[in-house]
């Protein structure tokens, strides 16, 4: 079985100190309870991906999913 991933979108608080605390709780490229944080993106990647899928041709979306599954 290949690697499994969890994608989470966290709505950050308005308070900058709280925002920093949330970002610092997820250590990039470090162990996190046995998992490994491999990426962080400041934005709503899930919504962006959903919008892309709506605009892309079905064959393109299927090809991207097959490619990602093979990584």
What key phrases describe this protein's structure?
71 residues; two-stranded antiparallel sheet; 46% helix; 6% strand; flat
Cα(first) to Cα(last) distance is: 12 Å
Radius of gyration: 15 Å
The total domain count is 1
Helix content: 40-55%
Low-confidence stretches: none
Number of strands: 2
Beta-strand residue percentage? 5-15%
Q: Supply the helix-strand structural class.
A: mainly alpha
Which oligomerization state do the chains in this entry correspond to? single chain
Tertiary shape = flat
Strand line-up in the sheet with most strands: 1-2
How many DSSP H or I helices?
Answer: 3
The biggest sheet, with number of strands, parallel, antiparallel or mixed sense and barrel status, is: 2 strands, antiparallel
The overall average pLDDT, rounded, is 89
H-E string: HEEHH
Description:
The protein has helices at 16-25, 45-55, 58-69, and strands spanning 31-32, 35-36. With 71 residues, it is mainly α. It has one domain (16-69). The chain has a two-stranded antiparallel ribbon. The radius of gyration is 15 Å and the shape is flat. It starts with 15 loop residues before the first helix and ends with a helix.
Chain-wise SSE layout:
Elements: H1 16-25, E1 31-32, E2 35-36, H2 45-55, H3 58-69
Antiparallel strand pairs: 1-2
Short description:
This protein is mainly alpha-helical. It has helices at 16-25, 45-55, 58-69; strands at residues 31-32, 35-36.
